[in-house]
Amino acid sequence: AMRTVTEAKRSIEQKGIEVEVVSVGSSTSTWVTAKHPAVTEVQPGMYLFNDGGLVDNDVATLADCALTVLTTVMSKTSGDHAVVDAGSKAFQWDQGIFPRTRSPGVKMVKFSEEHGWLQLNGKGKGVRVGDRLEFIPQHCCTCINQHDELVGIRSGRVEKVWPVVARGKMK
After folding, report:
1. What is the pLDDT of residue 20?
2. Helix or strand run (H / E) with residue 4
3. So what's the pLDDT on residue 168?
4. Nearest CA-CA partner of 143 in 66, 81, 77
5. Which pLDDT value is given to residue 59?
6. Burial, 144: exposed, middle or buried (Cβ in 10 Å; 0-12, 13-18, 19+)?
7. DSSP state string for 83-137
8. Which of 58, 71, 93, 124 is the Cys-Cys partner for 88 at CB 3.0 to 4.6 Å?
9. Which residues of the chain register pLDDT less than 70?
10. Side-chain half-sphere of 4: how many Cα atoms within 13 Å?
């Protein structure tokens, strides 16, 4: 990709047009592209939150992921299954991969629009109705676009609520 950017810059400059800014994006490749001599600006959008996709690409770890969707366990149909109050609408399903959690033994295995079905193993079998579980979305960009606001929590306390002002602004 950087070869194409470099060639485009060179071609434009050969036509007598000065290229003052070469701006690149992509949180996945930021660590490489930011060091490229042709680059003057980097716009990695997802690095602020990180997500399951960046974990899959070895750019972040689950511990690095700041964006989560907080759910509540609504029912526990057996020792190894439960349902939470967040489904495909809460997470966005554009990459076809279920969100994951840092809670041991808890795995989301199915969605409806409003609910997520959990498979519980080991420590996960201790999950009870009313428990709050955080899930890390696979793709933070589309997940954020599903919500009107983000709630900043530190040490279990709400510190800030940010409106998602660009939500639904596609034309």
Report:
1. 94
2. helix 2-14
3. 77
4. 66
5. 84
6. buried
7. EES--HHHH--TTS---B-SSTTEEEEEE-SS-EEEEE-GGGGG--TT-EEEEB-
8. 93
9. none
10. 3
- What 3-state DSSP class applies to 68? coil
Q: How many residues does the chain have?
A: 171
Q: Which two tokens stand for residue 83?
A: 């349902």
Q: Which residues contact 8 (CB under 8 A, 6 or more apart)?
A: none
N-terminal to C-terminal alpha carbon distance within the chain: 28
Q: What is the pLDDT of residue 161?
A: 97
Q: How far apart are CA 146 and CA 67, in angstroms?
A: 13
The whole-angstrom separation of Cα 108 and Cα 110 is: 6
Residue 64 has what DSSP assignment?
Answer: G
| Listed residue (38, 30, 33, 36) closest to 8, CA to CA | 38
Two structure tokens written together for 63: 């511990």
H or E, element range at 12: helix 2-14
pLDDT in tens, 75-117: 998 899 999 999 999 988 788 889 999 999 999 999 999 999 9
Rounded CA-CA distance 152/86 in Å is 19
